[in-house]
Amino acid sequence: MATERVVADSGLELVTVAAPGRPRTGWWTTLRRFCRKKPLGAAGGALMLVMVGTALLADSLATYDPIATDAANTLAAPNSEHWLGSDHLGRDIYSRIVHGTRVSLIVGVLSTLFGSVLGGLIGLLSAYFGGRTDLISQRLLDILQGLPLLVLALVMSAALGPSLQNVIIAISIPIIPRAARVIRASVLSIREMQYVEAARALGLRHLRIAFRHVLPNTIGPFIVLTTAQLGSAILVEATLSFLGLGVPEPYPSWGRMLSVSAAEYAQKAPWLVLFPGIAISLAVFGSNLLGDALRDTLDPRLRGS
Amino acid sequence: MRTYITHRLAVAVLTLVGMSVVIFLLLRLAPGNIVDILFSTGGYVSESDKAAIMKELGIDRPLWVQYVDWLRDILTGNLGKSYRYDLPAWQVIKPLIPVTVELAILSTIIAVLLGVPTGVISAVRQDTTLDYLLRIVSLAGLSMPSFWLGMVIILALVAWLGWIPPVILVSPTENFKIHAVQFLLPALAVGYRSSALIMRITRSSVLEVLREDYIRTAWAKGQKGRVVVWRHALRNAILPVVTVIGIEFAFLIGGLVVTETVFNLPGVARFLVQAILWRDYPIVQNLVMFIAIVVILSNLFVDMLYSWLDPRVRYGD
Fold first, then answer.
1. Separation between Cα atoms, residue B168 and residue A171, nearest integer Å
2. Three-state SS for A14?
3. What's the CA gap between A201 and A223, in Å, rounded?
């Protein structure tokens, strides 16, 4: 990355120098090239776009109120009224899945961002300053990383109590050490670059160098990291909700839709199990596909592998 | 080597102590304790009764006293008493361990059997239709919640075979066939997911090795393709794969939490969820510590395995 685009800061103005032989391309050309070279990644991106669109337009896409019960229409099989059937309280599955997209996306995106930004900052400072700071923060991160993501999230969400905010916090904490590791590794190599040395020689303060000169160059690994974590954040949310420790009522959540139905009605009404699970899988699949393609594109070390 | 192990063990012990503090404090953050929960189901009970029970359970004492007590208990092998069951914690946990261990081992075997060969095939046939297909199948494994996959497997069995999984655990001596099915199905659901990770790392690792000079030499010698790929390439590509297998084995417990719940298997993971919901501190903190120890030990074991697999790897220098 750094060999392709070197950002030099004289302290007065920001100069971007493109590497010779590679004309700057517009984002449209870049996007088209990405779609052609990474059809799977593009498909993943499209899935994510559909998900964002569904979340934004949930109110107009839903055909029923997602929390309205209907005693006359319980456990209805998929039909022209209830496209994906209805649950044991007569709630429309399709509308609940559409609204559940919102919850999944909000929890997924926010917890990924919180965890990655916080972890990224720790990684940046830890690697930039090195020495004892690095050693101590690494040992502390070891403690957080010693537990499976889900187990830590489970204990956290139980400790914090069920609410939308708390679920987001519970999922973002386990992401911190993972993000810190990735950003730390990339900062360690950036730190040795000549332009950082130049900035230091110019007498810039450490924090300014860290944030203005080093941080922007970690954006590649950061994007790769967040897309990769988004999928697992969505999965963990679904799992926590399934276990009754996630997003509380009345928000319709994909995971919770599975938990209520699973226990009693699955055999009578398999659509209760099938559709929310497909929604979860598609969302995670999309972000995984996109994350893979972005990793191949943005992380030159892994290119072609 | 010996200094290396000593160093690693020292770090591991420090990490575990840190973890114990985190776990202990996290659990005390929780709103409401076991007494509140018991009473909310039992209706009104006087404050003095409540205080008496809290005193009996020892949760009225200062936090640091409780923490030190717990550490001393762990070191002396006394894991405290389960609030909920009114039994020693160890007595409650002990019968659950074999179930989870059997499940974890089976899942890992399935994951390796599925993941390594598909990874190698995918690498050898890079960018062909088969490669894309295998990658999509494995990525799908990473995307499906394993508990949902478990539910779908059960549904399919009921729909096609009319077979409903037994509610209680059947021991292998009682009926081996039912026991095998009881464990194989959840192991399949969990193993599929782990296999996806193993497949991906195998693929990229083999791809890297296939570009090496000595592989070209092997081809040039007229060596059979099978020998080049499975003996020359895979053997040198196995190190990162072993790492992932090791990490996955330790982290399997996360996937088992829900799978054991779905398949109704009385294992450690399912019990952890129940204990968390009951705020049964002694059980939860001991189970989580147990998981942490397993994770740390398996990481250590994987590192040791390196030098055995690849004699070029040396420690301690």
1. 33
2. strand
3. 30
What ipTM was reported for this prediction?
A: 0.83
B279 touches chain A (CB under 8 A): yes
The answer to whether B291 contacts A142, with C-beta atoms less than 8 Å apart, is no
d(CA A246, nearest CA chain B) in Å? 12
Single-letter amino acid, residue B140: A
Of A140, A148, A239, the CB nearest to B145: A239
Question: Nearest-CA distance from B58 to chain A in Å?
Answer: 19
Enumerate residues 6+ apart whose C-beta is below 8 A from A288.
A44, A228, A231, B139, B142, B143
Q: Which two tokens stand for residue A204?
A: 């810039």
* CB proximity B297 to A under 8 Å: no
Q: What would the two tokens of residue B197 be?
A: 């990770």
Separation of alpha carbons A30 and A37, rounded Å? 10
Give the distance from residue B292's alpha carbon to the nearest chain A alpha carbon, in angstroms.
6
Backbone torsion region of residue A11, taken as left when φ is above 0, otherwise alpha when ψ lies between -120 and 50, otherwise beta = left
Give tens-digit pLDDT for B137-166.
Answer: 998 988 998 889 988 888 888 888 877 767
Report which residue type is found at A243.
L
Q: Give the number of residues written for chain B.
A: 317
Report d(CA B130, CA B146) in Å as an integer: 25
Alpha-carbon distance of B294 to B194, in angstroms, equals 17
Tokens of residue A12, six digits: 């007065």
Q: Enumerate the residues of chain B whose CB falls inside 8 A of the CB of residue A237.
A: none
Helix (H, G, I), strand (E, B) or coil at A244: coil
d(CA A187, CA A190): 5
Strand-pairing partners, residue A17, are A6
**Cross-chain residue pair A143–B18, CB shorter than 8 Å:** yes
Q: How far is A85 from chain B (nearest CA, A)?
A: 17
| Residue A41: burial class (beta carbons within 10 Å; 0-12, 13-18, 19+) | buried
pTM passes above 0.90: no
> Burial letters for A58-72: b for 16+ Cβ neighbours within 10 Å, e otherwise?
beeebebebeeebee
Q: Closest by alpha carbon to B73, among B281, B296, B309, B313? A: B281
CB pair distance less than 8 Å for B151 and A262: yes
Q: Tell me how crowded residue B71 is: count the other CB atoms within 10 A of its CB.
A: 14
A274/B152 Cβ within 8 A: yes
| Length, in residues, of chain A | 305
CB contact under 8 A, A158 and B30: yes
Cβ distance A281 to B152 less than 8 Å, yes or no, reads no
Q: Which structural domains are found in chain A, ordered by start?
A: 100-305 (1.10.3720.10)
Chain B hits for A284, Cβ within 8 Å? 142-144
Could you please report the per-residue DSSP string of A105-118? HHHHHHHHHHHHHH
Q: Which of residues 24-53 of B touch A (CB under 8 A)?
A: 26-27, 29-31
Return per-residue pLDDT of chain A as tens, 305 residues: 344 444 444 444 444 554 555 566 788 888 888 888 888 889 999 999 999 999 999 888 888 888 888 878 777 888 888 888 888 788 888 999 999 999 999 999 999 999 999 999 999 999 988 889 888 888 888 888 878 888 888 888 888 888 889 899 999 998 999 899 889 988 988 888 899 889 999 999 988 998 888 888 888 888 888 988 999 999 999 999 988 888 887 788 898 888 865 567 777 788 888 999 999 999 999 999 998 888 878 765 544 43
